[in-house]
């Protein structure tokens, strides 16, 4: 037995566990719970019925009440486990409830009505998923429209960002012209101009451009990202100029050099920027909130906030919609997280 | 080639075809432009789209913000507004005592300033400490380091609205936190209706959401510290605490300062997740500057874009100071790097 313990606690280098190792592992385990726990709880809750969401204390897993069809009744009836006066328990189906008394029948003998005090019964439940939380918002709310708006904004903004940022980065890394350093400084300088500082005048500019209450009004102000220009320029600087000169010898135009040589070579940096841009635009909140006032133009984030801000919050739908909103980002996390962390470590930007 | 692979190649080509075709069409006028203007003209062409968008949606608003803050009225177009000089600033700064918001003419603004000040101090301190501990632990030799790094990074990617809603759900009356409190024998509580707990929640949730980002920066700094320094210290039998204070902390200082300043800049602008979490409440206890600007500028019945614009300029000034601080810190870090 002590041999097993020695084996388990042995570390590389032959030393035994130091107290700092224990603290470290506790911290990491706690981190795992705190970082993922809330999201897992959200997903679990999103499959609960409204009645279950109102329960306290809440259950960890989602349950649904069992129902049975009883002869002589069209609708399926909810089953309860009832404690009868003689001390035995029996599974009965509820017909109707009047005050604290429920009229119930035995599914096997549907003719005898038993009156039961509701304190003496408990619903029969099994683990089950209330998938209607997911299907109904698509039908009853404009959720599908919000989803489409968000996808449109994210896709368009990312495409335009990739094109305009890469063109600017190409000019700033491969040409010498007067004012180049000044332009670069201006771009990097505006990294420091946050939306909240120019919120009001930006609104009036967008409104003067006639872009108010349109998805393009959401897209255009966000696409010229300084981070993107910076990231791509740093990458393009590593592409040797000889390659470009060789292409010029072969009579390639500047546009062809950009399109056929530099862009394919900058693909890794473009991929990082694309991932960043998708996450940014998908998650944008304040700007769409200000620009969009027509409900059918809302993006997911704005729509979610609106539903969650209503007096009578329908949590069962909100939770399911939150999960759907989270999915693309979780996919990015699972498959592309490496690129983002290397992007941040490389540039120190987000 | 198998049928599936052929199909895949064909669809790929079909999808790419319009783009390739478009690019070659664009090439025709551009060749002409290149002949007329030379490569200088081409540089202008490549810069134009980005700089145009940038000018219209960043530089122009930045400039007109100053004019805007000198006008009054509820109209959004500058030409429909009347010039009032510095009145908006006077209104914002008109206070009996800056420490007591009740004596201020624009008490909501000062409420937001006080709240933001307290939030920034507590949040940045907590953020720095938590990120630092996590980075130090992740820097140890361990199994699955990249997995653990990813664990702490997960919330960084979540949208602020999702973050706010997740935590609202946990902190509500029938929520997970009350389940834990209940299981420990306590009474369930409405956390977000209590001033102290709403503030604590705002701080904790924003730390939860962003600490992964700062941990990454600190971890990059820790990994850049040469291993041989630690080996030398071990050979001398230096105590671990001393190693931390004498080697790790001084060499990490540039990264640590960057983290602190970045966290300061972001904390001053805090909005999204707290707005979704508490809506600024209870009362005005978690109302922060950006929410003030948003509500005065757009949302409330007392709409006054000029006032919001003046408030945003004052906030911008604070951010400029912090940014200059960051540049200073960054330059010092670079010089230090050059010496080594």
Structure description:
The complex is a heterodimer of chains A (350) and B (340). Chain A has 15 helices and eight strands. With 350 residues, chain A is an alpha+beta fold. The two termini of chain A are 51 Å apart. In chain A, strands 2, 3, 4, 5, 6 and 7 form a six-stranded antiparallel beta sheet that branches. By secondary structure, chain B is an all-alpha fold. Chain B has two domains: 3-68, no CATH class; 103-339, MetI-like fold. Helices cover 76% and strands 1% of the residues of chain B. A two-stranded antiparallel ribbon of chain B has the order 1-2. The radius of gyration of chain B is 27 Å and the shape is globular. The chains are: A alpha+beta (350), B mainly alpha (340).
Task: Show the helix and strand layout.
The complex is a heterodimer of chains A (350) and B (340).
Chain A: H1 2-9, H2 19-45, H3 50-53, E1 63-65, E2 67-68, E3 77-83, E4 89-98, E5 101-106, E6 109-117, E7 121-123, E8 125-127, H4 132-140, H5 143-174, H6 180-189, H7 195-208, H8 215-223, H9 226-236, H10 241-249, H11 254-265, H12 267-283, H13 286-291, H14 300-309, H15 315-347
Antiparallel strand pairs in A: 1-8, 2-3, 3-4, 3-7, 4-5, 5-6
Helix pairs in contact in A: 4-15, 5-8, 5-9, 5-12, 10-11, 12-15, 14-15
Chain B: H1 3-68, E1 71-72, E2 82-83, H2 87-93, H3 107-138, H4 145-157, H5 160-171, H6 176-183, H7 195-223, H8 227-235, H9 240-268, H10 272-278, H11 289-299, H12 305-339
Antiparallel strand pairs in B: 1-2
Helix pairs in contact in B: 2-12, 3-7, 3-9, 4-7, 5-10, 7-9, 7-10, 9-12, 11-12
